[in-house]
Amino acid sequence: MSFSSTLYLEPILGLLLCDVRPDFRYELRLGLQEALVNAARHGNQGDSTKAVQVYFIITPQHYLWIITDEGEGFNCQAKLNEEPLTKEDYLHSECGRGLYILKKIFDEVQWNETGNQLRLCKHMPQGCRPILE
Fold it and tell me: pTM for the whole thing?
């Protein structure tokens, strides 16, 4: 996946969110957009010959996305263990906002050991199950 603007992500995000309850789509769209942009820009270093794969799983209890890039990965544990920045720090920083956004939107944010695969999970509150058709 390569794109010069996040506007090109619109059809992809539409597919990834088509089975998501409408009341959760807006915030999940923001989080997925951030994750996809990071995978293409940082993971694949903007190399249009490299792909980003996305798997989407729905269960009665949660939505789950697994996003994998073809990059070398990064030390996600070191990044996650860094001293957390304040909200104001993230707002004024060019980097680091993505992780802040992901942690605010998703209930689980996990990378594989290599750091080139991201697992994002959103748990559904009781009585607010995902749409299963």
Answer: 0.81
